[in-house]
Structures are given as C-alpha cells and as structure tokens.
Fold this protein.
Amino acid sequence: MTNPAPDSIPALLFGDLWQYAPAPEKPDFVKFEKRYGHFINGKFVEGENYFASINPATEETLLEVATADEKMVDQAVQAARQAYEKVWRKLSGTERGKYLYRIGRLIQENAMELAILESMDNGKPIKETRDIDVPLCAAHFLYYAGWADKLSYAFPGANPSPIGVAGQIIPWNFPLLMLAWKLAPALAAGNTVVLKPAETTPLTAMKIAEILQKAELPAGVVNIINGAGASGAALVRHPDVNKIAFTGSTEVGKIIQRNIAGTPKRLTLELGGKGANIIFEDAALDQAVEGIVNGIFFNQGQVCCAGSRLLVQESVAEQVVAKLKVRMASLRVGDPLDKNTDVGAINSRQQMEKIGGLVAQGEREGAHLWQCDCQLPAHGFFFRPSIFTEVAMSHTIAQEEIFGPVLSILTFRTPAEAVEKANNTQYGLSAGIWSDKGSKLFKVAGALRAGVVWGNTYNKFDPASPFGGYKESGFGREGGLQGLYPYLKL
Ligand code: NAP
Ligand code: MG
C-alpha cells in the first residue's frame, strides 16, 4: 500500500466528521487574590513595585505581584535562617515527613483548583495540568516524605545532616512541578528555603503558600518571594544562603555560576536541552509517531527535555514524516481550559517572538517548514505546531533550543551515525530511542551523553527517577535518592 497523501487524509478524517464540541473546565470555583506581595515567615506580606501576570491565552491580567528588592530578600533569608536554627533542623525526620505528607495530601485535595490556575497562568492545556503537573507535584512531596526519616539508611555510615538555607529559582514552564522538585527534597533533608517563582507564573506558588499555612508548616521553613531576574540575582548574592538550586536558561545558569564562584555556596543547575528522539527502522512506527508528538508538543514544546531533534533512519524517514503530518493534523490547538485541547498557549509574547524568530531563521538557512493549518484563537499567544525537514546539523534550528512546538527532523543511516549526531550538541539532558530490539536500545542508550534516556516512550517522569544533565544542560540531579545529595552534608 502506498503512504496516505498527508494533506488529503486529515481533511477527510478530521474535517467535518470529527468536530469536538467545546468542553471548557469552569474556572468559577477557583479563588485567588488579585494582588500578592510575598510569603515570608508564614505570612503574606505587602510588597512594592507590583507588576501584572497575564493569562497568555487571553492576554488579560490575572493578578499582580510585587517585586522583591534586596531588603525583602534579606527578610526572607533571615526568616529561613531563624526557622532553620530554631525549629526545622531540630525536628526529627519523622516529624518533617509528617509535614511533607500533609502538604502532598493537601495538594491532592486541591488538585482541580491548582490545575485550573496553572492552566490560566501558564497557558498549558488542562488535561496536562490535571493529569501530569498536579499529580506529579503531589507525588514528589509524598515520595520525599518517605525519605525524611530514612536518611541514615539511605546513606549508611555517613551521618547525613542538612546544609542550611537553600535559595531556589524556578522557571515558568512547569511552575508547580519545579516548585515540588525544589521544595520536597530540601525540606525532607532538613533545610529551609527561599524560593523565587518566574515572573510570568507566580500564581500557583502563592496558592501553595496557602497550602503550607493549612498544613501548619512552621513559619519561615518555606518563604516565597516574587519578582523578576533581579530578585533572583539578589537571592543568589545573599551571603547567608548556603545553597542555590536553579532551573532555567543556560545563559542565566552561567551568570549564577560566575556570581557564586569563590563563595562556599553549593550549586545545582538544571538548564536547557536539545534532546534527540531517535527512530530506528525496526521501531513500531505508529507508536513512535505518538512518542514524537508527545516529545515535542507536550507543554507546547516548552520543555527542557523536549525531543526537539528527531533523528529518523533514512529507510523509514519518508513514511514517518507522512504519518507524523497525518497525526499532527488532528492536534487541537486552542483554549487551555478546554478538556479536548492538545496544544495550549505559549507562556508569553516574548517567548512566542523568540520561537517565531528561530522558525524564520530555519527557513532562511534552507530548511523546509511544514505547519498545521489549524484555526488559531484570535487573542492569546498561540503558535502552530511546526516541523522542519531538510535540516542540516549546522542549522541554527538543529543546535539552539527553540523552546516551542517546533521539531527539527534529521536522518541517519547507521546506529553509529545516530549516536554521533545525537551527541553533537552543547547540551546533554535527554534522549529517546525507538526500536523493536532491546539490545539495540541498551547499546545506543549507553553511548548517548544524556542524563535521561527513554526507550520506546518519551517525557515520562517519576519522583523516584533522577533527572539532570551533562555539558551545558547543567549538573546535579533532582528526583530519587540522588536528589537528596545536593541538600545534605555527607
Ligand atoms: P531564565 O531567564 O533563565 O529564568 C529562570 C528563572 O531565573 C526565573 O525565575 C527568572 O526570573 C530567574 N532569573 C533571571 N535572571 C536571573 C539572574 N540574573 N539571577 C537569578 N535569577 C534569574 O529563563 P526564561 O527567561 O524564563 O526562559 C529563557 C530560556 O530559558 C527559554 O527560552 C529556554 O530556552 C530556557 N528555559 C529552560 C528551562 C528548563 O527547564 N531547563 C525552563 C525555562 C526556560 P524571571 O522569570 O522573573 O525573569
Ligand atoms: Mg501568567
């Protein structure tokens, strides 16, 4: 049988026959303040220089948050220090664990509200926040709750003790999940925290602050400051912070590393990526196509471990691209609160322009662009799911992280060539391998310089599984037993 003509089948299948009625999640019952300062020493405090956080799907202002200056950062660090010395370090692991369990359960109890708020502030589809972000966020607290009273078994003979005050800075792509990845291991290990969410996604961190109050977490154990990059930089500079944990761009990661050089502060960096998703000719191709779609269109491609470089074996390349186009034509792009939406809004105008700029550059450099011809909403930051064929390794779109729903497709002939191309990047965060042969999966996985390698799947996360990078993707691991190391003196 010949391959389906990719442009005719979707119209047939998904044109008039498969129209979905709108199924929006109702945001009526969610509650949040229109203005938040900061959360310091167990209380919400007023701040200065308020700025707006918008809903990227509507461009309407959702809430305003304050900007933490040096003085506010100092207050937060002092609160964390007091709580560390007077309360948290003295509690037994069993007691710390009880708080973490309580926080995890409260997140589960408030799951729907958190999911809706995360969709509104970030732009990601409700089916992702509901089924992935929020459950995983709770799972991280519950997982690390289990370690809190077992540290001496986890590190036998090492007599593990906490480090002190951790400054944690997180990005906008997974606001709740990154918060959980940072807070849970730090608290389980006995540290106190000052956390700064990203300026475009402060909302769910403020809701978590409410949850921390409900859980009666001792005041000052977790402090959350709002603000932009300068507030993060002030936190990094503060002399009484013992450890910095950062997730975000490689560029800012380098600045932070420079700023703390020569100080005793510890550092972990989780930075960008340009993950290779490798499809061998013996793979189950339809399954692989689902994995390609999940790899690059999950969270609008704004994922550090996205499978943004597709490496397909030459013998099946044409077939895979044809199947991919058919599958992409059925992607529903639009209202993040609609339960049928597959691809939501890009987080900010700035990010959308960055994606647009790189796509234009891809075309200028000679790659061939194909985009879904779906209807985009009139307002909001939406970007068509896009793929590039005829991509060369030297193209900017094969090297730079686009952080959007844009896939660069390259081909290879032999496993060795696949490995060489996959490793030919400044990054080393993630990769995927699709093959029918288990031995091939393991052999190739072993040769890839990437922190996480998925076999016949992609973008699977579990709190028990360590995550982190090589090269310019950063250092240190989050998740699993390994995620405790950065927060302990051993
Ligand atoms: P970013 O600038 O690195 O921001 C990450 C966090 O660091 C945010 O909370 C940010 O605050 C803060 N920050 C900015 N400048 C800082 C400084 N000098 N010192 C301390 N903290 C600072 O990342 P972005 O602007 O959100 O995104 C830019 C690119 O980063 C993306 O296009 C993507 O390539 C990459 N990225 C990677 C990840 C990942 O998971 N690895 C996540 C997001 C983005 P503000 O947000 O308030 O500026
Ligand atoms: Mg927002």
User: Anything to note?
Assistant: Residues 126-148 form the longest helix (23 residues).
